[in-house]
Design goal:
Layout lengths: L1 H14 L1 H30 L10 E10 L8 E5 L4 H10 L3 E6 L3 E7 L6 E10 L3 H5 L5 E2 L14 E4 L1 H7 L10 E4 L2 E8 L12 E4 L14 E6 L5 H8 L5 H10 L2 E8 L8 H36 L1 H9 L4 H37 L14 H23 L7 H7 L5 H37 L10 E6 L9 H16 L4 E7 L8 E7 L10 E9 L3 H5 L3 E4 L13 E5 H7 L9 E4 L2 E9 L18 E5 L5 H10 L3 E6 L6 H12 L5 E6 H8 L1 H35 L1 H9 L4 H30 L15 H20 L10 H7 L1
Parallel strand pairs: 5-10, 7-9, 16-21, 18-20
Antiparallel strand pairs: 1-2, 1-11, 1-12, 3-11, 4-5, 4-8, 6-9, 7-10, 8-9, 13-22, 13-23, 14-22, 15-16, 15-19, 17-20, 18-21, 19-20
Length: 822
Amino acid sequence: MLIRDLRLAVRQSHKNPGFALAVVMTLALGIGVNTAVFSLVNGFLLRPLPYPEPDRLGVLLLHREGTPPSSGQYVTEEDDSHDGNTWNWIRDNVPAVREASYGLASGVNLQSGSGTGASARYAHAMRVSAHYFDVLGVPLFLGREFTEEEDRQGGAPVAILSYSLWHTAFQDDREITGKLIQLKGEPYTVVGVLPPYAQTPQTADVWTPLQPAPSGECGGTNCGIILRLAPGASWQQAEAEISHLRKPFFDTVEQKYKGRVFFHAVPFQRTMGVGAEDRRTPVLVLMLAVSFILLIACANLAGLTLVRIARRTPEIATRLSLGATRWMILKQLWLESLVLALLGAGSGLVLALGILKFLSGFLPLQYMPLGGIDIDLRVLGFTVAASIFTSMLFGALPALQTRRVDLRSAMALGSHSVARGSSRLRQMLIAGEVALTVVLLAGAGLLIRTLVYLETLPPGFDATNVITAKVSLDDARYHNADKFHELLKKSLTAMKQIPGVEDAAVGLSVPYERGLQVGVRMLDGKARVDDPDYGAGTAYVTPGYFKTLHIPLVLGRAIEDSDTAATEPVAVVNAEFVRQYYAQADPIGLHIKSNGVTYRIVGVLGNVAKTPVNAQAPMAIEPDFYVPSTQMNQGLVNMAHVWNQPSWIVRTSKPLVGITGAMQKALAQADPSLPFSGFYSMKDILAENLIIQRAQVMLLGVLAGLALLLSAVGIYGLVSNLVVQRTREIGIRLALGAQMRQVMMDVGRSGVVASAVGLVVGMGLAFFAVRVLRSQLYGVRAYDPVTLTVVPFVLATIALAASFLPTLRIARIDPAETLRME
């Protein structure tokens, strides 16, 4: 019986190829985008990590909650960055877990080959503790992990290579373990190689021992701690042991903020990767948006199905008169919808693969789920469920209209017997479409306004014809101050001689980047608050840095050639530094102290946009101070080079072909074995900072445009069908003297009324829905008056056009012909 019904459903689709094609294409679009986005949700939130017993992997977090006096608002924060003291305590006092630590990603210089075949290359590096791969559950392909002796300060320099680096740089040398390689300017012994396709939380080419301790890299909160439950232990046991860890500042913070501070463990997947917490909201918002698209598509298809059922009323009535039950009719109509839905789902899978391929190429690797995004059994199950769900929405529910079919009236009036009821239901569907479209348009509008705000934020410098190049100086050869300054001097001298170069300079960071964060103490002057200790961003720069970037000088002077290691240390602060920390407008001559060095403020600069420390926004203005490269504490310089790659900055008179090659040759004059890791325009750096916002705008903007198109098509289809259904009525009214304009208004009113109801409901929904986007908005309020005015205006305009364009067909109705037919 079921096979026969399915065959009949296929024949019905074959008899109406236009209807079938419209349904399949619409569903392919709706199910395709839903499948693609669900793949992201699956990768970030649902799919288990590619490690043994992933539920036994966790991360140590510091939880803070309370009400800061400065804001008066209750806040909750969690931080996965810890110091060496925390590491020692966890290692020695929590037997329920095996622990491993990791530092920040960085870049290093690697020399492969020997003699005339030697070559220098840039490599991505990670510093990890002993047992790191064992805790994750990643076995090595060759060799072994780091030992605890190697992971102590002063331990032997050893390295583990990725399979890719081993393959490309060392030609699959199976005897590589035990051999020396030149890494960071000094010899390292290779002790292991990871297997092919090994998946680690942070992508790297080479791993070296972190050597976590209360000093060095983990002297500050720069290290993460991974936990794996010991055999037989539970998370309740681990949490009980971790809860005993309290630091001296906990009591102070809890009293000051009237809240709580404590350490606890959370699942590893929750905090993994760059901005893992920040990615949850955008991904879930995107999933909600594509579900709206699917509902809008189903509403449109339900309208088409209602029209089709109305036209098949005589057929349905005939089958009922021959003994078919209404349940049999409903089942047959649903099977017809299910066949089309499955075809749409198959086409949607193909579309989803294309979307996922595009996203994989568009988004950087660090913003993708661990293991990438693909279509697995869970995603396939979602696709099948979506196809069944949509077949119920656009097929089975409209089919319920057949319950109204009266055999006598259906045989006499044909398709008009259920037309009036179906038209009313279609108006309700259109209202629903418009309401969901308003929500999507409002969300897309707010994100567009946010992106415009961020991109038009005053940069504070001139990026025209500026190119930057980064170099890793986490290199033993440049731990010596004299060698470091000689490198800067020789390379800049050579770059300034490149034809077309106007200025050149070096800085630890450039605008749009996050600077090195340090503590600062005000030694004199009128501080804005009682506590003279602050935090600020800092960077060493060479003379000409501000001139090269055209950063305006507000007061005093810039850093000059005369500022050397033998002269008084000086600093140039930005205007935001003065605004936040001083109660006086002119700080020239005042003194600040940072990392044991006292600096005299000699200048004030205009503010430049940068990546903020608190990461509450992609771009912001924060307090900064700049010091001469010759006067920053060399120990701090060496530590900064572990995390930051300084930039060589060149301004040219016009765009120059081959400038990157000329810059590399200029650097080679100072050190032939030192490679640039990459070349970037300031526009490239800004684009990297705003890549998530641009992806959100692109994806949600496309979805909002698609929803608008589907709604317009739905309104147009509703009115067009009314024109067809009411042709006889319209002809008679025109023959009796009715005005063409009045008739057109009467017919088009149905689309306008449905759209107006949807617009009102949609605005109400939007006022609640935009709250979800608050964490994604910068420089724009959730209830932005511009967005909430433009959205209904645009939608109302399109709805009016879609409602009255089909009524132009009324002008082609001949009243005389209508009367003859009557």
